[in-house]
Amino acid sequence: MIKYFLKKFRDSYLFSIRKQVYDLIERDSRITDLGCGDGELLRILAPKISYGLGVDKDRKEIAFAKQLTKKIGIKNLEFAEGDITEHSGNFDYSILMLVLHSLDYKSREKVLKNARKNSDKVIIVDYENPSLLGEKLFIHADEMLTGHYGNFRDYLKMDGIESFLKRKSVKKFNTDEESIKIWKINQK
Ligand SMILES: C[S@@+](CC[C@H](N)C(=O)[O-])C[C@H]1O[C@@H](n2cnc3c(N)ncnc32)[C@H](O)[C@@H]1O
User: Fold this and answer.
1) Pairwise CA distance, residues 74 & 62, whole Å
2) How far is the CA of 166 from the centre of ligand 1 (A)?
3) Which of 3, 18, 25, 42 has the fewest CB atoms within 10 Å around its CB?
4) Residue spans per domain, the chain
């Protein structure tokens, strides 16, 4: 029951950002969502894309994603349990939504390198150092409950996504949430 309400809260909090990702991708693209969690982003993208593969190491999240997607009758999505530091494939887009901040530095580097190798474009949605006090407290409290708070602190200390992107062809977008940004990396 608590999990149900947390999902509802999280989905409504993130809906406008997921919709921004929907607007950024091209129609009929092949997408992989790395660290897809329960697959909500791909279900939102499904009407616009030709194929989506969600990968996550959490077996329960993948089982939930498969079950809900099948129940709704969406046919162009697949979900697989797996480690995104080892992921390979050939896609138009790799998406990393709220994943990189949860990884240690080496894994961040590896996941981003693989994502760039496996796709023409990479979309990253993640935190930028929160500046507003209320938001800062909320995000830090939320991250303390996740089990990867150490990685999150290291991520902020290392200047988040920016440390990886200095010389790449990147566009950065604001979202409705002051501390969450979207980076679109175009490889071509
Ligand atoms: C904060 S959640 C974000 C989930 C989803 N992208 C979203 O926006 O709702 C981070 C997800 O990354 C997954 N994850 C972290 N490290 C991973 C790894 N090495 N391989 C696969 N999944 C990983 C976690 O299991 C978790 O579901």
Assistant:
1) 15
2) 24
3) 3
4) 2-186
